[in-house]
Amino acid sequence: MLAVIRLIFILRTVIFILSAEKVFHSRDHSDAMNDIRQAELITDTDTAQEGGTTSRSGSPDLRFISALKEFQQVSGLPVTGVFDDATKAAMNKPRCGVPDRDEELESPEQVFESNSTTTHTHTDAAVNASDAANNTEPHVRKQRHLAALLRSRRRRDASAWTGHMAFSKSLLKWRLMGEGYSSQLSIDEQKYIFRLAFRMWSEVSPLQFVEDTHSPLEDIDIRLGFGTGRHLGCSQRFDGAGREFAHAWFLGDIHFDDDEHFTVPNMGSGISLLKVAVHEIGHVLGLPHIYRSESIMQPSYLPQDAGFEIDWMDRKSIQSLYGVCKGRFSTVFDWIRKEQTPYGEVVVRFNTYFMRDGWYWLYENRNNRTRYGDPVAVQVGWHGLPSSGVDAYVHVWNRKTDAVYFFKGVQYWRYDSENDQVFTEDSDGRSYPRLISEGFPGVSGPVDTAYYDRRDAHIYFFKGSQVFRFDVRANRLASSSPQKITEVFPAIVPGNHPVSNLDAAYFSYSHNTVFLLKGSWFWRMVSGRDRRRSVSLPPNSLMPRRDVEQQWFDICDVHQSSLRTARR
């Protein structure tokens, strides 16, 4: 019966006007003894059956079964309507206190509790007690109950899945409050974890986050702190270890219960501060709960897997609020590498890389996403290349030659793939870097971009509005070079092609064709398959332009202050 009481409490919860968002609330026996105004409390087990869990006839109450099915659905369980062991286990998992079933507010006034306009002064470590005492104009901050505010604005359509945009700007400032440090972790560990949590959201959205320890407090968008019991001037009291881990306010305050055993990532015990922080930041940004076991926004707290990630659906949810990542690239290429299998066979594999402004992303074609933890500095991953990045990449790959070149300005470098660094001198005695005009007669730098076409064994150098075709076998320009881009790469739709100053030319082994990129657009060259389907298509002709973000997803910048924050 106690389990039934607990289920009814979960599924009949009215709007929590008097509490902040309770994150990862542990469902235990104390649920039936707290916040009795917020749920229908069963006090008489004999009469409870009349209007509660069963009808007078003894048959199951249809409302109970409906609520049970709803709980099973949002918990990712088989929807049976049967109160089985799996359902009981799900009910007893640590979970967020936000109701699973959304109720609409009848009026905007219901968003605020009666004492929600809380007057309190936040101070940093540098502000002493006398400073606080002399502050005659304490900061007034309306603390909105996050879940209630979201529900009041939520429409019963697809937007209920994705939430609502909380900020109208893309650069957000955050601060770990000086009076809110944890007693369990060092300050450096706390800040490292929060920087990483913010970076994880920045890697999948246009948002950028910067730690700000100097600006006036009212200019800080997201404020974080630890406390116990009555804490940080907050109207919501923490309850000690084991139940409420943290709570978040819609306007940017995130508080963590310092009675909990928070740990650094991948400890294998305790509560992962990183996972709780990522969840909390998601709420502050406007995301509701997402009822999938893989989602960081799911209500139940699950122990952190090693290297947990923000998954595809969570990415789409945050992007539905703030848009997708855009930007131009200086170089895009497939990096070919040879590997030997345990059976002694040599196999060829490749990875796709995007570069800009001295940073690079590895793109996982199979998963259609960037690698978690990118971007990385070019200097770190490509030893010996210019720190500012490169203009072009060329891989001359045929039966006789396997040579990789990077171009920057008027120079180029040959890259030693086996030792993962540039050559200072290759096997032919050539030293690097060299002038482009020395290695490729007839071509003078700088070039906009370039690629090697295995079909005709030519390197295509792009410069301004012209294309220079370089014959690798003859070591000279083709007799017809240079030509206009529009002549070598005609448009299928008249006028729909790049005219000059390309950013990148990229031969893709995944698509077995060439992509030309400029700004936020790309043009795909028709492939052999396209021409077999439609023999009238001219060679090298270009399909109509499309947005880069429609083809390659989540190639996002992070704030410069976070670029060197990586998982330990």
UniProtKB/TrEMBL annotation:
Cofactor field: Ca(2+); Zn(2+)
Binding site for Ca(2+) 2: D221, D253
Stretch forming the signal peptide: 1-20
Peptidase metallopeptidase domain sequence ranges: 163-324
Cofactor note: Can bind about 5 Ca(2+) ions per subunit.
Positions annotated as Hemopexin repeat: 387-443, 444-492, 499-555
Binding positions (Zn(2+) 1): H231, H247, H255
SMART domains linked: HX, ZnMc
Chain sites annotated for binding Ca(2+) 3: D239, G240, D257, E260
One cellular component term from this protein's GO annotations in UniProt: extracellular matrix
Protein name: Peptidase metallopeptidase domain-containing protein
Gene3D superfamilies: Collagenase (Catalytic Domain), Hemopexin-like domain
Binding-site residues, Ca(2+) 1: D258, E260
InterPro entries with a match to the protein in the record: Hemopexin-like_dom_sf, Hemopexin-like_repeat, M10A_MMP, MetalloPept_cat_dom_sf, Pept_M10_metallopeptidase, Pept_M10A, Peptidase_Metallo, Peptidoglycan-bd-like
One Pfam family this sequence matches: Peptidase_M10
Keyword list, A-Z: Calcium, Disulfide bond, Glycoprotein, Hydrolase, Metal-binding, Metalloprotease, Protease, Repeat, Signal, Zinc
Record GO biological process: collagen catabolic process; determination of left/right symmetry; extracellular matrix organization; proteolysis
List of residues binding Ca(2+) 5: A450
Similarity remark: Belongs to the peptidase M10A family.
Record flagged with keyword Lyase: no
Residues with the Phosphotyrosine modification: Y432
Record: residues binding Zn(2+) 2: H279, H283, H289, M297
Active site location: E280
A molecular function (GO) term: zinc ion binding
Domain of life from the UniProt record: Eukaryota
